[in-house]
Write a structure and sequence with these properties.
It is built from ten helices and ten strands. The longest helix has 16 residues, at 167-182. It is of the alpha/beta class and 234 residues long.
């Protein structure tokens, strides 16, 4: 579904990611994990067209999308939930969700998507008239993911889901991601919490200083000596 080949990318001609290759198959949950500064966010920004790669290829559903404008990538069905949530704080929860559906012309389709999102996130339904700034950090993260779902993603890319959240909330949102995956949406999750991110994934990639150092099924990675010693303190 999504294939990254020999990707080199960064900022102001300074590379942050070097020769990274990975692929995601339809219906999977794939996690890219690693410490802060490893290049995880840079990879997502490059896939979504927010920054341009120096070299390499990005292919989605058999079509090259590297160097494609960001809005066209969104139209293809690649939806990016950025690090730090970035909700529209002065707007209501419902209006935040409607912003996610800005490119959908059918009112009936938007209403259907709203009902689906409220079914997954009943808390947002209860508070739909509140301003987003009144929500807790965990609720804002739910809103950011829900807004992404309103765009009818084929693949949902989520950056640092667990950032600043209590462990119980992280666990709850990860369970919600599993439920979203069962609805047929492919998920690419990027996070520093290695154990949690790999536990819900089908497969994973370990990123270190801009390079993939190992990959495998979630079970293989969680049981590997490298991951256990370097990231799980075991």
């Amino acid at each position: 579904m999504l294939k990254i080949k020999n990707l080199k990318t960064g900022y102001d001609q300074v590379p942050v990611v070097f020769d990274v290759s990975f692929e995601i198959h339809e219906g999977e949950i794939v996690s890219i994990v690693g410490s802060n500064g490893a290049g995880k966010t840079t990879i997502l920004k490059t896939i979504s067209g927010l920054i341009q790669p120096f070299s390499g290829e990005i292919e989605f559903m058999g079509e090259r999308i590297d160097h494609m404008e960001a809005y066209k990538i969104v139209e293809k069905g690649i939806i990016h939930v950025p690090e730090g949530r970035h909700v529209f704080s002065k707007m209501t929860i419902k209006d935040n969700l409607l912003m996610g559906a800005y490119r959908i012309k059918s009112v009936e389709e938007v209403d259907r998507l709203l009902e689906e999102v409220y079914e997954i996130f009943p808390r947002l339904k209860e508070r739909e008239k509140q301003k987003a700034e009144t929500l807790s950090g965990g609720e804002q993260q739910m809103l950011a993911v829900a807004r992404g779902l309103m765009a009818k993603p084929k693949i949902l890319m989520i950056d640092e889901l667990s950032l600043g959240l209590m462990p119980l909330l992280v666990e709850k949102i990860l369970e919600i991601l599993k439920a979203i995956s069962k609805r047929g949406i492919t998920i690419l999750l990027v996070d520093q919490k290695v154990h949690e991110a790999l536990e819900i994934a089908d497969r994973g990639y370990i990123l270190q200083t801009g390079r993939v150092i190992t990959q495998g099924t979630s079970e293989e990675l969680l049981n590997s000596d490298l991951v256990r010693q370097a990231y799980l303190g075991m």
